[in-house]
Amino acid sequence: MANFKGHALPGSFFLLFGLWWSVKYPLQHLSQKVKKKSHRIYCFQRVDAIEGGIKIIFALIGMLAEQFVPDGPHLYLYSGENRDWVKLMNWQHTTMYLFYGLSGVVDVFTYVSQVVPRGLDRLMLSVAVFVEGCLFYYHVLHRPMLDQHIHSLLLIAIFSGACSTMLEVFLRDNIVLEMFRAGVTIIQGTWFWQIGVVLFQPWGGPMWDEQDHSNIMFLTMCFCWHWAAAVTVLALNYNL
């Protein structure tokens, strides 16, 4: 959805997961000191499976919202009558949700099946994040300068998350990588909201001048503030 709601919805999903991970992984790291290791592993595996189920639900909500809003494509990809593609922006968002849904499916199968290779859940999550970045890279080509810039800042968080999650395939239960993933996911969430506010002004007020270089300078600085806020959240949750 090319509107504020279309950015607030994924932003909320990412923010919720990022905040949850920022609490979960410190607890998991501290619980390693508990003697009942097998019980601890089982509990956190169940949590991972529940996460996967929630991820699937969020993905389905996102796909349905993108397809069946009043001005959505309603599962039509190409119009033979007009000889044109139908709402490709909605289809790109749907594709993003699809891969996160597949990541959730792998999370669940990792818990219920013993034959799923260790690390496949992180690999699928890394693929989902990479697909998101690939889609958004080509999402704003030939768009106004401010639109391109604010989305390019989002790509920093996306591809950082994809790389760190890929490392988790080989460095499992690494608290630094896990907290970094939580941080960049929080940033994705807050920055999606920032994009929606800047481009669509949901609460009224004048629209941003998309050709003013000062706005680009401010938003770059603002993106750094989002990083600082995410680091603060991680530090607080890790030390509580």
Automatic annotation (TrEMBL):
Membrane topology: Multi-pass membrane protein
Cellular localization per UniProt: Membrane
InterPro entries: DUF716 (IPR006904), TMEM45 (IPR042127)
Organism superkingdom: Eukaryota
Keywords: Membrane, Transmembrane, Transmembrane helix
One cellular-component annotation, GO: membrane
Residues annotated as transmembrane: 6-27, 47-65, 97-116, 123-140, 152-171, 183-204, 216-238
A Pfam family per the record: DUF716
Family in the record: Belongs to the TMEM45 family.
Protein name: Transmembrane protein 45B
Annotated organism of origin: Opisthocomus hoazin (Hoatzin)
